[in-house]
Amino acid sequence: MNFIKKIKTLAILLVATTMSAQTDDTVLMTVADKDVTVGEFRYIYEKNNGDGANYSSISLNEYIDLYIKFKLKVAEAKAMGLDTISVLNKELDGYRKQLTDSYIMDKEVIKALTKELYDRKKEDIRLSHILISISKRANAGEIESKRKAALDIFNRIKLGEDFATLAKKYSDDKSSAKMGGDFGWLTAKLPSGFYAFENAMYTLKKGEVSELLRTPLGWHIIKVMDKRHARGKIKVAHILKRTDKANPTIAKKEIDRIYAELANGADFADLAAKNSDDDKTAKKGGELAPFGIKVYEGSFEEASFALATNGDYSRPIKTKIGYHIIKRIEKIGLEDYPQFEAKSLASLKKDSRYETQKERVVEEIKLNARYKLNKNTFDNFVKKQTPEIYTYKWKVTNITDDVLFTYGGKKEYMLSDFTTYLRSNTRMRLRYDKKDPIAESVEKMLNEYVKETTLKYEQSNLEKRHPEYKSLMREYEEGILLFEASKQEVWDKASKDTLGLYLYYEENKTDYMWLPRADVAKYTVETESAKKAKDVYKCAKKKNDKKLLNKFNKKDTILTSEIVKIERASKAQSGMEWIEGARSEFSYDEKNGLATFKKILKIYQPTIKTLEESRGFVIADYQDQLEKEWVKRLNTKYDVKLNKDVVNQLKK
Asked: How many C-beta neighbours within 10 Å does residue 52 have?
């Protein structure tokens, strides 16, 4: 290796070493004895600059300057004790709760559900089922009776009886019962309320039978018959000839004729427009909306998905309504995961599976947190309770304040914590019926409390699992402090300090000038005669406002004027020269008998605005001055150290 190559290699190694040494934990700057890491700065820089976060020298230097000022103000806010104000802390707690719920519930739940659904959509399941239906108005006794009937069938299957035979005899889904329970092919996602059904579909192996499953329809037993790679969706066009029951052969002859024309090169869309009996699609060349499995009749679906390439068309196929020729337009596969995730968010949150998954997440957190219930303490508490716990009158009496449950063997929740929760959640206790077993009800109440404390416990792990959570909470906290400090030091002073505002205005009033202005008369002429309206316009050239009004306000003509001030070059001057007496163009609305025009009456030279006339601008400028003075004081009060080597490493 020659000398030049050695130098280049050494330079590359040095750069690589320097860059690798710079991590998110590297200190970029220290403001008021508080370190700002590269990770913190990078997060806020990229978030606030978006596509402009190019790490150029100009961009970085500008934002570093802004961030230093921001951090100085936050330091001052804490020095002012604003971080101890209960109202602000309550506001921050509200943000924290929302964010925690978002990260623990929404992010974890939606993430799991989306991934699960995406994977399931890659596979179609063919299944058979037996349904023992339950009326929506069924009482507890009827529901239990149906459950026992379904359980009896399940046990008979387990003992070796034929699933199809039992389905034909007992299933309340008559359409599938005829075929031994064969429901055909299904794919996720099933409708809300059928998550347990869907879970069984995708969990069972080919040939396996599920346990009893409850859905809004009733009790199900399902058997997985087959599995295949998902068909996905397809877009097709079709030509339909409906079958006439009185003469069914006509439709067949017509579809064969159309098929022959296609084979001879005729255009599919033209043939559909002229011949198809599907009025909704004929004018669109026969095009149907994209569809997946289990949407159309089996023969139509099979023929559609059998078409190998775009543009292929089928031979005539028969359905219940007639004969079709189907043309493939596009085969639609499963979209990329990020697109699927974004599209699925709203629907998954509304689905019943969302609540089911939330419970799973809580149980997983409890498991990881090593949640442990002191059952003796809980049982002793339950034994002392009466139906009064379902009322407003309930009071805690004669209990020993023992540890009720723990997390990680360290974080303890006492029995008194639980009773305080129960006292403050009276509405929850009132939801229960006095006839409900006390032990069962109190256990449900405990589960609600444990769920709440579990989520609180998980907050401590969020910063490790989700670095952006830590960044967002810091952003919320510092944003609240900055807002309150700026309000006290700048905004309130500028609007409430009348003397300071007046003195600032006096020193800078030449900055608040009116542009050349004019008094303008806006005339409205109401008359059925276009000639009279034109006469008003002509006379307005020489006569002043008062004389013009006196001359033309007659029975058949109503002339009104409104005097307004306008600035030169404003939109209101459009169409008029900037000279006294200038008029806008004349226009007459014959339909409504209305004419309008404007005339410049008097022009004023530039003048200084009064404080009242310029108050909004003066306050804004005064705020800017107070802001600069404040930052100047903070720079004197607090030390700022910038690691220029790290800054240079960030630059691109």
From this structure: 11
Query: Does residue 95 form part of some domain?
Result: no
247 and 195 share a domain?
no
Does some domain include residue 129? Answer: yes
Name the DSSP letter for residue 554. B
**Domain range for 547:** 517-604
Same-domain check for residues 149 and 246 = no
Any domain includes 554: yes
How far apart (Å, rounded) are the C-alpha atoms in residues 138 and 412?
44
CA distances from 257 to 236, 271, 314, 323, 475 (A): 21, 11, 14, 12, 71
Q: Is the pLDDT of residue 212 over 70?
A: yes
Query: Are residues 257 and 310 located together in one domain of the fold?
Result: yes
- Beta strand 27-31 with 640-642: parallel, antiparallel or unpaired? antiparallel
Question: Into how many domains does the chain fold?
Answer: 4
Check whether 15 has a pLDDT greater than 70.
Answer: no
More confident residue, 289 or 408: 289
Residue 126: exposed, middle, or buried by beta-carbon count in 10 A (0-12, 13-18, 19+)?
Answer: middle
Q: Which residue has the higher pLDDT, 428 or 2?
A: 428
Q: Which of 25-29, 87-91, 218-222 shows the lowest mean pLDDT across its residues?
A: 87-91
- Return the structure tokens found at 42: 């990078």
CA distance 255 to 325: 8
453 and 380 housed in the same domain: yes
What type of residue is 498? T
Answer yes or no: is 504 within a domain: no
